[in-house]
Amino acid sequence: MKFSNTRAKAFTLLVLLLAAAAAPPLAAAQREKKFGKPVASTTQRSMPALRSRAEFDKLARVYTDQPYALPHVIFVIDRRDKNKIYYVNSQRFRFHKDFVNGTYLSLERGQEFFRNNYLNENRRFILGTLAWQAPVKRYTFEYWEGDLATAELIGLTAEVIRKTFFEPVAYKPNSLRQEQEAAKVAGLDRVTQSDIAREQEYQALNVAKGIGRIHVIDKLDEHVEIGFNEILVLDEVPLSLPPVAGIIISKPSTPLSHINLLVKGWGVPNAYIKNAGELLKQYDGWWVTFETLPDKYTIKRAETRSRPTSARWRARGSPASPSPPASASPSSTTTSSSGRTASKTPSSR
């Protein structure tokens, strides 16, 4: 008898479970009424709109190695799906392709993804970044500096963001071509990197310390040979680079550029230094220790014993640059973000 009662109870429980499973799910409106509207969390992949600073902060990745915090969220607009925008959880997804592939919006990879979504005018996805720019107290959206976005795509992006973001957002062009295309969009509010860094003479783009040989490059093209253990001094951020020992640029650059993101992964020093080409010409060809800090940088001549050696470097056939006499050589330079520079020269021995 006890066995029969047990079987009856088990059968009743099974019927109840099956009934619950077969019941229709609550409609979205009913769920919101019962449980409240869903809010962003670090486990969410994306949101279709950001209606408050709190929602923006939930998804934002923040760089703290800048003179000011730079919270930013990457976004994807799917033109095939009625211009649906995805504000991506940027703590979870570092690059746009990671999100697009990870959510199965597209399985394109490598050069195919790059060509179709950065170079093609009739692209499916518009890929950008929305950031809070503390120096000008504005939100801005921007593209990778090599993106060939047309005036039509820029205007479409501005319109979609206007409808889905809680505050006005200005466009920040990152190349001359993007500035020219933006000029064709009527009523487009713009903020440039020069506006943001107007008073800056130094900005750390990646805080790190490293050793390398200074290579001042007036014009970077396919004829310039780059060593993996060189610290490059460039006029502006290039569209692509192989891994190097450090990067210094002489024009203001967005910390959100593709190269600057890659350099963070390399773990090498990277900075904007006003008039770097002229200021650091005295170090060209020298092995130095280069350190970037949030408010200043230091460069000093590396001791012979601390210079890295590599069979790979020797195999490239790059001639070793002779060191000038100690009495004629700069030993170290320290410059703060205000632009004050102190150079020290060792006495001749």
The percentage of residues in β strands lies in 15-25%
Terminal-residue CA separation: 107 Å
Contiguous helical run count: 11
Instruction: From the alpha carbons, calculate the radius of gyration and give it in angstroms.
Output: 27 Å
Biggest sheet, in brief?
9 strands, mixed
The SSE string, one letter per element, is HHEHEEEHHEEHEHHEEEEHEHEEHEE
Instruction: Please give the domain count.
Output: 2
**Average of per-residue pLDDT values:** 78
Low-confidence stretches: 13-41, 309-330, 337-349
Structural class by sheet pairing and helices: alpha+beta
Strand order of the largest sheet: 8-12-11-10-9-13-14-15-16
Count the E strands: 16
Question: Explain this structure to me?
Answer:
This protein is of the alpha+beta class. It has helices at residues 2-22, 28-35, 53-59, 96-102, 110-119, 151-164, 176-182, 193-196, 258-266, 276-279, 311-315, and strands at 46-47, 61-63, 70-78, 84-88, 125-133, 138-142, 169-171, 202-206, 209-216, 230-234, 246-249, 270-273, 287-292, 296-301, 332-336, 341-344. It has a nine-stranded mixed beta sheet. Strands 1, 2, 3, 4, 5, 6 and 7 form a seven-stranded mixed beta sheet that branches.
Task: Write a brief structural summary.
With 349 residues, the chain is an alpha+beta fold. The chain has 11 helices and 16 strands.
Which structural traits does this protein have?
single chain; 349 residues; alpha+beta; Glucose Oxidase, domain 1; 2 domains; seven-stranded mixed β-sheet; 11 helices; globular
Secondary structure elements and their pairing?
Elements: H1 2-22, H2 28-35, E1 46-47, H3 53-59, E2 61-63, E3 70-78, E4 84-88, H4 96-102, H5 110-119, E5 125-133, E6 138-142, H6 151-164, E7 169-171, H7 176-182, H8 193-196, E8 202-206, E9 209-216, E10 230-234, E11 246-249, H9 258-266, E12 270-273, H10 276-279, E13 287-292, E14 296-301, H11 311-315, E15 332-336, E16 341-344
Parallel strand pairs: 6-7, 9-10, 10-11, 11-12
Antiparallel strand pairs: 1-4, 2-3, 3-4, 3-5, 5-6, 8-12, 9-13, 13-14, 14-15, 15-16
